């Protein structure tokens, strides 16, 4: 359970691999794909440990989702140029009973992700 009083179905953690530390202060938006396009279902900002633990509602349906991270703003605040103004990670939720953790590893000119636990 997190500060908002519910267990988030989808969480994230952002690490700045160039600096070797969590990336605090990155805004993120979670969207669900609907027949008429994308629908925002959550927002958050990474904490001092680079985590957003209350990004989503307590439950989500199977389907396609995406998280958009404002990485350009983060690097600008660090006084660094960056190639990617934002990073968008689309993923599929297939088991509504599972927790989905979507980590992001960033540097000014590269990023990677994987399905976390």
UniProtKB/TrEMBL annotation:
Question: Can you tell which superkingdom this protein's organism belongs to?
Answer: Bacteria
Task: Give the EC number(s) under which this enzyme is classified.
Answer: 3.5.2.17
Note the coiled coil stretches, chain numbering. Answer: none
Task: Tell me the ranges covered by the Transthyretin/hydroxyisourate hydrolase domain, including all copies.
Answer: 5-116
Task: Provide the alphabetized UniProt keywords.
Answer: Hydrolase, Purine metabolism
Q: What would be an example GO MF term here? A: hydrolase activity
The kind of enzyme this is, by top-level EC class, is: hydrolase
Query: Which reactions fall under this protein's catalytic activity?
Result: 5-hydroxyisourate + H2O = 5-hydroxy-2-oxo-4-ureido-2,5-dihydro-1H-imidazole-5-carboxylate + H(+)
Q: Where is this region: Disordered?
A: 37-57
Q: Which InterPro entries match?
A: Hydroxyisourate_hydrolase (IPR014306), Transthyretin/HIU_hydrolase (IPR000895), Transthyretin/HIU_hydrolase_d (IPR023416), Transthyretin/HIU_hydrolase_sf (IPR036817)
Q: Short name of one Pfam family for this protein?
A: Transthyretin
Give the family, as the similarity comment puts it. Answer: Belongs to the transthyretin family. 5-hydroxyisourate hydrolase subfamily.
Main function? Catalyzes the hydrolysis of 5-hydroxyisourate (HIU) to 2-oxo-4-hydroxy-4-carboxy-5-ureidoimidazoline (OHCU).
The UniProt subunit note reads as follows:
Homotetramer.
What is the name of the protein in this document? 5-hydroxyisourate hydrolase
């Amino acid at each position: 359970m997190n500060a908002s009083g519910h267990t988030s179905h989808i969480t994230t953690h952002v690490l700045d691999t160039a600096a070797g530390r969590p990336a605090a202060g990155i805004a993120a938006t979670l969207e669900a794909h609907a027949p008429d396009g994308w629908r925002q279902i959550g927002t958050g900002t990474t904490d001092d440990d680079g985590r957003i633990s209350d990004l989503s509602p307590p439950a989500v349906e199977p389907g396609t989702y995406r998280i958009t991270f404002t990485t350009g703003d983060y690097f600008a605040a660090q006084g660094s140029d960056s190639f990617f103004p934002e990073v968008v990670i689309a993923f599929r939720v297939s088991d509504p009973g599972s927790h989905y953790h979507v980590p992001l590893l960033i540097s000014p000119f590269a990023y990677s992700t994987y399905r976390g636990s």
